[in-house]
Amino acid sequence: MSLIAENELQEVPVLDIDPYAMDVLRDPYAFHAALRDTGPVVLIKPHGVYATGRHAEAKAVLADHTRFITGAGIGIQDIRQPGEFRIPSRLLEVDPPDHTQVRAAVTRVLSPVAIRRFKESFTEKAQALVQKLIDLREFDAVEQGVEAFVLDAFPAAVGVRLPRTETLAIGEMRFNQSGPKNALYHAAMARAQPYLEWFEQTVQRDAVLPGSIAEMLFQAEDKGDFDPGVASNIIRSFVGGGTDSTIAGMGFTLHQLALHPDQWAKVHADPTRVKAAFEEGIRHEAPFQVTYRTTVGPTSVSGIRLDGDMKLGVFMGAANRDPRHWERPDEFDIERPQLAGNHLAMGTGAHACIGQMIARGESEAFLGEMARRIKAIELTDTPTYRPINQMRMLDKLPLRVTPA
Length: 404
Fold this sequence. Notes:
By secondary structure, the protein is an alpha+beta fold. It has helices at 22-26, 29-38, 55-63, 98-109, 112-136, 141-158, 164-177, 183-192, 196-202, 213-222, 230-242, 244-259, 261-269, 274-284, 316-319, 356-373, and strands at 14-15, 42-44, 49-52, 68-69, 138-140, 291-295, 299-301, 304-306, 311-314, 374-379, 384-385, 394-396, 398-403. The mean pLDDT is 93.
């Protein structure tokens, strides 16, 4: 409970907009504004869940695992309830203190030495792919660019084999599963069904690549850092969180740089600035639009009374454009100060994205190679988006490049 006296608390305001309606998923920014303007926390009437889209409140909820837990699932469904149960992610859906031990062991696996080794591989793969794109001159920067790079670079580091069709189907299932059981949910579940057995097999000990993160996780399990079976569970989370989100973030960054030739000129002149460009890209359009927590008991946020045992959606996409926190929030600006650690695209608190160093390493390698070797990029057609319950993701990004 906050320091505000019980009798001074206000009732939660109600917002009668469905954030999972198809038109909202395709263009969520009017909903984001309504969410922020209605109150620091609101009740989303169509789904009977709380939500916040303001930066300060979103950050506070994500950082407070004593009042807002992940153990009921980070999607809108309460996985503790009959008919909704699924095996929780031991990395994302377990709260401290149990989570602390698991995260510490994974952090040891993701040592700076390991990350540096993988970055060398990222650079080699980026050089080869960018040359192919330059030869093409015109291409879809989603399928032929960022998807092709991530689905080549990431599996080699993590140690699992991820063919495009199967991987994207599993990803869309996971991220539509985090929302309500709408048409997107059912279509994604059906599309992924033929690949579920393959995915289960690919994250087992005998299928992972030697010298990879996955192998090191199984070795940590052998040493007793994890309970039996936890390593494969964590690898599932790595695959789910480390492919689609990085593809989305790199795509958003390229989209905005194509729309702003002056900013592309800056990264071309100094390719180290792709780091700032990627951070601004995922602030401007957060790949993970929403994650859920559950109130442990009656509590309050910013003077709003909240009931216990209720889902609370933290809309990072809205928080990352909150004008209470950001100047010119709807503009893309690679010179925006204090980006990394300030935007919420990679979460915050105990469950902040543990693979963020890998995502940043991949983006630095691929976008940096493009910046060094390409003088200009431009759109050749209107980009389109792929509607997903939990995510925002480009489907097509048609580009033309001019070599340096």
